[in-house]
Amino acid sequence: MNMAQGLALFFSLYREREGEGAEVAFPYSEEAWTALHTDSSADVLGRFHVFASLQPGKVAGRAFNVVDGEAFAWKELWPRLAAYFGLIGTGPGAGGQGSVKNYVHGRKGECEGWVARRGLVSGALEGTGFEFVDDVMSIPIRRDYDSSSRKEVGFMEERDPFDGYRIAFDEMRAARIIP
């Protein structure tokens, strides 16, 4: 259940094939492009767990949704994610490839050479749940979580959703998962 790794590998492979500055269309419907949702980055979720472990009286027996911040739509984030990889993110219907999974899996034969040429760790593409990326990104309805319970107990941390992806992408670059 890792959106960041699937997107990082997709965008990296897309740039490798299409070149820097290429347009990359959002591969799902207009409804999915505009539907509001929330994301939870691993480090914010981890910090909440540390916070909660130090507040047993406040959190005992409660359920929490921990999200990065306010609800957003892919139309706000997709162009920024693409730009991180030197690409131009566009909306659906502009020559989209249909799905992240289909794009990557349709180029499996090229991936081994790409990994070797770029000095990347092997196995990352095979171990990535691209189906999860497709399933989550193609949801055509609003699916944001109410995170007021975390604020009620004093966990106020929020961030721009792009920052969670950027941090993960930077770490993947350092680990040679992506170039």
Radius of gyration: 17 Å
**Low-confidence spans:** none
Reading off the top of the CATH hierarchy, the class is best stated as Alpha Beta
CATH topology: Rossmann fold
Please outline the major beta sheet: 2 strands, parallel
User: What is the total domain count?
Assistant: 1
What is the H/E string? HEHEHHEHEHHHHH
Percent of sequence in beta strands: 5-15%
What is the level-2 CATH architecture name? Answer: 3-Layer(aba) Sandwich
- Major β-sheet strand ordering: 1-4
Overall pLDDT metric: 93
CATH superfamily: NAD(P)-binding Rossmann-like Domain
Instruction: State the end-to-end CA separation.
Output: 22 Å
Short summary of the structure?
By secondary structure, the protein is mostly helical.
List keywords for this structure.
179 residues, mainly alpha, Rossmann fold, 4 strands, 51% helix, 6% strand, globular
